[in-house]
Amino acid sequence: MDLEKPQAGHRKVPEGPESRAHGREPEGCLVVAIRLPVRIVALVVVLPVRMVWDALVVVGRMLRDTVLRPFGKALAWLGKVLFVRPLGALWRWVLVPVGRGLGRLVEWLVVVPAVWLYRRVLTPVGHGIAWLARGLRAALAWVHQRLLTPVGHGLRWLMRRLVVVPAVWVYRWVLAPAGRAVAWTVYWAGRVLFVLPVLALWRWVLVPAGRVLAVVGREVRTALGHAWRVAGHLSLAVGRFLGALFRWIFVEPVRWVYRSVLTPVGHVVRDAVLRPLTQAARAVGRSGRQALTAARESLRQARYDVRRALFGAPRERAAVDRREPAARGARTLGRSTTALTKD
C-alpha cells in the first residue's frame, strides 16, 4: 500500500493488456531488445516450413479423397467377401454345432462323474477330516492354554528384567546424548561446507541466469507462434495467387475455347450431321420393323393355309349356356326378385 498520495502532475502508467492477462510485471528493455530479432529470424525459418506443410496438407487431402478412400472401400468390400462372410458361415454352421456337441460330451463324460464323486466320496471323507481337525484343534488349544501360556509369561518377565530394562537405560543415558552430539556436529559441518556455498551459487548465479533464459525462451516461443501465424497468412496468399494464375492461364482459356469454339461447332455438327443421321437411322429402323412385321404376318398366313389344306378347317366350338339372365329378366332397382328366384 502506498502511504503517499500521488502528485497532481504525475500519473501511473497503466499496464498493457498482455501484462495484465498473464499476471506479470511490465516488460523491460532487455525483453524488447530480444523480441524483434528473434521474431524476424523465426519468420524467416518458419515461412518455408509452413508453405511446405500447407502444400503437403492439400496433396494429402486430394490423395485421401481420390485414392485412399476408394481403395479403402474396395479393400473393406473385398475383406468382407473373402474373410468376414466365410468366417461367419464357418462359425455359424461348423464351429457352433461342434462346440455344442463337445460341451455335451464333456458334460456327460467329466462333469456328471465329477459331481457324483464329489457327492458320494469326497463329501463324506471331508466330513471325517473336519471332525478329526476339530478334535486336534481342541487338544492344541488345551496345550496352549495350560502349558505354553504360563511358560511364555515367565519368559517374558525374565527377558524384561534381564534385557529390556538395561537396554533402555543404555539408550537413554549413553546412546541418545552421543547421537545428538554427532548429529549436531555433522549438521553444522554439512551446512558450512555444502549448504551455504550451494545456496550462494543458487541465489547469485543460477537464479539470474535462469530468469534471463526464461525471458529468452518465452520470447522464442512467442516469436515462433507469431511466425507460424504470419507464415500461414503468407502461404494462403501465395496459394490464392497461384490458384488465380492457374485459372487465368489454363482454366479461363479452356473455358473460353469450350464456350466460343467447341460449343458452336458441336451445335453445328449436331444439327447438320448427327440429327439427320439419327432421323435416317430411325426411319430405317421403322421400315425394317414394318417389313419384319409384314413378313411375320405372311408366314403365319401361309402356315395357316397349309394346315387348313392338310387337315381341313377347324370345327367351331358350340356355344355354352352360362345361365346368364336376359336383359328383360335381370334384377332392377324397382324389383325384389332376380333371374334365379323368378318363376
Automatic annotation (TrEMBL):
Protein name: Integral membrane protein
Residue span of region Disordered: 1-23, 321-343
Native source organism of the sequence: Streptomyces glaucescens
Polar residues composition bias: residue spans: 334-343
